[in-house]
Design brief:
The protein has two domains: about 220 residues, P-loop containing nucleotide triphosphate hydrolases (Rossmann fold); about 170 residues, 2-Layer Sandwich (Ribosomal Protein S5, domain 2), CATH 3.30.230. It has twelve helices and 18 strands. Helix 9 packs across helix 12. Strands 3-2-4-5-1-6-7-8-9 form a nine-stranded mixed beta sheet, with helices on both faces. The protein has a seven-stranded mixed beta sheet with strand order 12-13-11-10-14-17-18. It has a two-stranded antiparallel sheet with strand order 15-16. The longest helix has 18 residues.
Length: about 425
């Protein structure tokens, strides 16, 4: 015989809001969609990452390192939404209302429709929502919120999961769009249960170094838009400022005629971005050479170095190799392979690449150059920034309809690419 404690039945979050929770199944063709669509924050980079704006009833999880700018961004967005006539509520679980006001004054937040409350009890937060009926809700942070129906401490797995679930039910039934700000672990993942990321509609991360002024906002999950979109911001005294042309930013301090430096055209979602790849190859003083990468996958670089050794004949087994993407951005797509190969070869041969040349393409294990998507968009963006020559896969050149003022050179192997860049 085992004694079991009878669990008290939790009230529905809709009970305190006075909303009928029972629904009956209906045909999908009979479900009406609000014609208003998305709500824009007038922060274009933020709206792009969200998929075009905030969806009614969506719940968004915002993660990032401490001090990276999460609270700053949502406060600026709420201020814009408040000025457009929408009632918005900011729930601070880590700061008092006066402390939030001080930060708001620094950011120029002045909307009368922006309400601030310092609260961590979920039941009181739901009462405030019932009285105020906000269109947008921000909870900063979800790890500080607790429900009195559970005995565990705030921040525990059960408290975070239960609080997020009840806020999600509230958002779906009332149409209130909710932003949950989450702490991150040392590994960079959002603290708490992984189920939190499965429950929400959108997960966005702030990337960047606090000692570096630039921030990358990236969606890793989005039920209402692309997960490849990024937004670029610059942190200033007055808050986060949009960077509308990140390509110019990433290339602004690029050294000219320096071995190991090449420009690659990458695409993040629907946006083409030109970034500088830097490589440094030098003889190693150890038995095992070092392979250090920043901004690109370490295993991918090791694979491409093996291709250079096998297919081109470069002796890199006794060389330390360092690869970096300038500007703090991270590039994951295969189109960057050709840039990695050429930058490593450039540093090894001590030969510089023409500063007006841009390149992209996927490299296979056989040394072949495979075609990639959206080649015309990449070439057009390169021409816009003053590049005169574009080295791309042969298949992309054949299917290209590009009319930009840039010379397209199609290649089909790594050997052809190196011959084109450095001469035979």
């Amino acid at each position: 015989m085992v004694e079991e404690k009878v669990r008290e039945q939790l009230p529905s979050p809709m009970d305190s809001l006075g909303i009928e929770t029972a629904e009956t199944p209906k045909p999908i063709t009979d479900i009406q969609i609000d014609e208003e669509g998305r709500v824009t924050t007038n922060i274009r980079e933020f709206d792009r990452v969200l998929g075009g704006g905030i969806v009614e009833g969506a719940i968004v999880l915002v993660g990032g390192d401490p001090g990276i700018g999460k609270s700053t961004l949502v406060l600026q967005a709420l201020n814009n939404l408040g000025h457009s006539g929408r009632v918005v509520l900011y729930v601070s679980g880590e700061e008092s209302a006066k402390q939030t006001k001080m930060r708001g004054d620094r950011l120029g937040v002045s909307s009368r429709n922006l309400y601030i409350v310092s609260e961590t009890c979920l039941e009181r937060i739901l009462d405030d929502i019932k009285k105020l009926r906000p269109r947008i809700l921000v909870v900063d942070s979800i790890q500080t919120v607790y429900t009195s129906h559970l005995q565990s401490a705030p921040g525990s797995i059960s408290q975070v999961r239960e609080s997020a679930a009840r806020l999600m039910y509230m958002s779906k039934r009332t149409g209130t769009s909710t932003f949950l700000i989450g702490h991150v672990t040392k590994e960079g993942a959002i603290a708490g249960p992984r189920v939190l990321e499965h429950m929400v509609d959108t997960v966005i991360y702030f990337e960047g170094d606090r000692g570096h002024p630039y921030r990358i906002l990236r969606a890793v999950k989005n039920r209402y838009g692309s997960t490849n979109e990024i937004g670029v911001f610059e942190m200033k005294d007055s808050g986060l400022e949009e960077v509308l042309n990140p390509s110019e930013l990433f290339l602004s301090e690029r050294p000219m005629n320096i071995p190991g430096s090449v420009v690659v055209s990458s695409v993040e979602g629907s946006r083409p971005i030109l970034v500088e790849f830097q490589a440094l190859v030098s003889p190693t003083g150890f038995a095992v050479p070092r392979r250090t990468t920043i901004g690109v996958d370490h295993n991918r670089v090791s694979l491409l170095v093996a291709v250079l050794e096998k297919k081109v004949g470069m002796r890199l087994a006794n060389q330390d190799i360092f690869v970096n993407v300038a500007g703090g951005v991270r590039i994951d797509e295969p189109a960057a392979d050709l840039g990695i190969v050429v930058s490593v070869a450039s540093s090894y041969l001590n030969k510089s690449v023409d500063p007006k040349t841009v390149l992209f393409g996927e490299v296979g294990l056989g040394g072949e150059i495979r075609g990639i998507s959206q080649g015309d968009i990449r070439a057009k963006e390169s021409a816009k920034l003053g590049f005169t020559k574009c080295i791309l896969p042969q298949s992309n050149k054949k299917s290209s309809q590009n009319k930009a003022d840039i010379k397209l050179i199609g290649i089909s192997s790594v050997e052809e690419a190196l011959d084109e860049v450095f001469g035979s």
